[in-house]
Amino acid sequence: MMTHSQHAIRSVRGMRAPLRALALLVLALAFGGCAGTDAEEERADADGSQRMPAGVAGADAGTHGRISAGVDHTCMVREGGTVACWGANSSGEVGDGTTTGRTAPVAVDGLDDAVAVSAGEAYTCALRAAGTVACWGSTPEGELGDGTRADRHTPVTVNGLDDAVGVTARGRYSCALRADGTVACWGVGSPTPTAVGGVGWRPGAALSDAVAVSAGFRHVCALRESGEVACWGNNEAGQLGNGTFSGNEDTPVAVAGLTDATGVSAGAGHTCAVREGGAVACWGNNDVGQVGDGSTSYRATPVAVEGLDDAVAVTGGIHHTCALREGGAVACWGLNNSGELGDGTTALSTTPVAVDGLDDAVAVTGGGGHTCALRAGGDAVCWGSNEFGEIGDGTSVAVPQAVAVEGLGDAVTVSPGGSHTCALRAGGAVACWGANGNGQLGDGTTDPRPTPVVVDGLDNAVAVTTGMAHTCAVRDAGGVACWGANRSGQLGDGSTTARHTPVAVEGLDDAVAVSAGQAYTCALREDGTLACWGANPFAQLGDGSTTDRATPVAVEGVDDAVAVTGGHLHACALGDGGVVCWGRGPGPDDVTGTPTAVEGLTDAVAVAAGAAHTCALREGGAVACWGANSRKQLGDGTTAHRLEHRLEPADAVEGLTDAVAVAAGAGHTCALREGGAVACWGANHFGQAGDGPIISLEERSGLAVTEVLAEATAVGAGFDHSCAVREGGAVACWGNNGAGQLGDGSTGGRYTPTPVVFDGT
Length: 761
Known about the structure:
By secondary structure, the chain is mostly beta strands. Strand 8 and strand 9 (133-137) form a beta hairpin. The longest helix has 15 residues, at 19-33.
């Protein structure tokens, strides 16, 4: 039975260009060109007529639409028309103005009106809303179309194109589908667009009825409105499908016996087409089973892919192929050395195998040794080769199953708490994840969340802090809002009632920073004084008493503070190079009701309080710690406690001389180093040191440098987990995950940094 889209395409075949081409292009998108592209993405021309939405050059499930996998990099169009790319970047193919490889998405410079993207070998092209095309990256053969062969690290405009409705980039060629049904290509032989000439079975006639086009490495194929496919270029493996293995064809030749195609995709040396009814036919190179007919014999004419009768789109990688099936499942076949088939193995398959755990895909794209898909909710997942970070999960480790591309791309700071985590986002919103029994995630519920949710009613935060089961944020006007557990008054609203959404702390309108302890909170005020509230059995509020407070009270004797940190049962403040602390002291019976100076410390620039230890960052990058040390959290190579508020000049964490920030957890400590690396030491029974794989979960007396975090900008330590913000705003966490506090959608512990999965809302 024909699908609705197949009936529709027949109904417009009698139209004349350009109306005919435009109608067909919209239909091509609806059933494969860019599956999942909503109607609201359609752009209107100045005269009110509609240009093709997310104009894709190939009807191959978004391979040249919303998401596109190149050889070693990947790009995706985001809402609003920006483009994010990740992976190899030696030629500037990521488009961020650098040649630094990226293991998580970064924004392409200067693009805010893209409607489609196509990633080639070491370059990328994007279709813009006005019908122009911009490209960036490597261009030894003129693949960028700007008339030069100079690499570009940011987008440049392709010459002479203002009516493009689709773009395709792959190997040595780039091509654009134009609104009148013609195709223009550039690259080998021409650094600017050149019209594709006559069609082989119609001598002298121009190619003017294309509805989709897809570029392989050295060949190109076009889908015609009649359902026929025409290909040109290299044919040594039979990839043109005309029954021969001729060397090259300079003009399009017809693929034999194919008159009912609804989509086409060119791989490195093979080609595939979706047929009416959902079958898939492939031809060309088949040395590793990429044709999908159960053999490894080259095919010069189309053969049926085994077991597929419900495909809606197909995408060809270099040596593998994948199809999007009705209902959202994805099947892949061919080479699988890096897990690019997504079935959890690395075993080659000459017939389709299902991608594990993926049943809601709306687009799929095959790259070099990796594959990516767009899910119904807008999230991207990738699998396979990851040497250059092309999977986008923040690592460079190959994965044979679908994993989420890092989505939390606008974090400024991150704060791990007891069993939950919160991040401050660039626009002032706060996102939280993990345990939520007391409403500490702030979303109005008590449901645990293994991925981030947005805190209700908070869009002007400038700082966020997490306690054991409560959270607080400073607002841009100086007010403080808190939510979560409140048995001891730690929310500061005058009550002891738990709150599932933010409530204002009474009497505070001049706060500049806030820090939450176990069940209390302290705020730094504009004038350098401090106010604390909540639990106070160990005098952690600093007011000279042990009385709980449900509203803020002043910390005695502090009027020059520049920072404050709340530990489990003690707090500390940074002044002019010095540190004062109060509450339960380093010794088991040591309680200090008012701030006491740490002797021998005059050059501190930051301070962090853990459960029973404290660390200070010193000028020059050294870190000094004191307090409990049973888990080696002081970093001095011993388990000897340092039970006095006194430091000697030589006291320092071993081997750390370039720290720029420090964070203390329950029994572990982490530091951010110059250059963006993160080092952790101390307790490691949950992998909170982050230096896995771990054979024995022992404490770390030395530094455990998590090399996968080479681009961190902030670090935070929770009770027994850690998190870091990376360049670009992505967040990665590691350690205990029993409540989902790592934010990766699971409750399984992670011994190395794992990307937080966030849908961007």
